[in-house]
Amino acid sequence: MSALIAAWLAHLVAAASPGPAILLAARTGVTQGFATGFWLSAGLALGGLIWAVAALFGLAALFQFVPTLFWLFKLAGAGFLIWLAVQMWRHARDPMDMTAPAVAAPKSGWGAFRLGLLAQLANPKPAVFFGAVFAAAVPPGTALWAVALLLLGVFFNELLCTLGVARAFSFAAPRHAYQRFKHHIDRVFGGFLAGLGVKLATS
Questions:
Q1: 8 A C-beta contact, residue 83 and residue 10
Q2: pLDDT band at 101 (very low <50, low <70, confident <90, very high)
Q3: Tell me, what's the pLDDT at 167?
């Protein structure tokens, strides 16, 4: 149980660290509100869970034995993140009416969920992280309930960390600041996202 708790805490720190998930949660919260942020966070959480399950079934080991596969995953993920960054940059000057109902209500819950899922799956490094963590926390013969408990912890770590960020950025003050400086903020968001994509591709 102590190993499981340590694994859960290690992932909690990783989930709360700045990265594509936190960045997208902040931007979604400030541009589309908390409801859309919830669906984005659900997609991000499911993506994290998928990587955890994949690592549990040996994907991390497969990446080690076939590094070309990991490299291809990284390139595809980096391309997706850079594509998102380009979209932010291109539409940075587009006006946005922050008083419109579409800001408070989700434009598309499914669209936000799908974006979160794809953004999380775009980064294969969690599979390596989970593989290392599970090697210590989930030795052969670990009870099924303990594995299920750890996977549930992974899901809620991802969900609550990104949901908290989306909520914080959905309040009126951040939204009005975004309305005023949208052009600059979108390009900063896009620049960071592009940087993360390049880092993923080259690391």
A1: no
A2: very low
A3: 94
**Reduced DSSP (H G I as helix, E B as strand, rest coil) percent helix, strand, coil of the chain, to 5:** 85, 0, 15
Say how many Å lie between the first and final Cα of the chain, rounded. Answer: 33
Residue 2 CB-density burial (10 A; 0-12 exposed, 13-18 middle, 19+ buried): exposed
Tokens linked to 118: 């794809």
Tokens 């926390």: give the residue: 137
pLDDT tier at 106, thresholds 50, 70, 90: very low
Contact (Cβ atoms closer than 8 angstroms) between residue 37 and residue 116: no
The pLDDT of residue 100:
44
Measured CA to CA, the distance from residue 81 to residue 193 in angstroms comes to 6
Of 115, 27, 124, 120, the residue nearest 66 (C-alpha): 124
Tell me the C-alpha distance between 186 and 177, whole Å: 12
Boundaries of every domain in the chain = 2-202
